[in-house]
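Risk register update: the risk of archive-format incompatibility is retired. Evidence:
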Amino acid sequence: MLEIKSVNLKRSAVDTLVVPVCEDQDIHDDPTVTSLVDAAKALEEFNGKKGERLTLFAPADTRIARVVFFGLGNTANLTGETLRSVAGKAVQHGITVACPV
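Archived output:
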């Protein structure tokens, strides 16, 4: 079951954080999320291309058990359907989605 919560990533313990990532542009304002995206993109196997998926466990300096990154492709091609699809994939994996505030 999908559960969406607004959380402060500096104070809250989070089981799983889902982060959509574009390959050509940062789409997040939260500095913690931006730092996590940078860490994911530093790995050879993840660039934010559409369909890519990467999981990081217990990233340093956070209270997050795991972060699941979903590649969205280029921002020029980003649509509501793309975001709906990512939410659907999160539901398939039984992930609780925490949205940074």
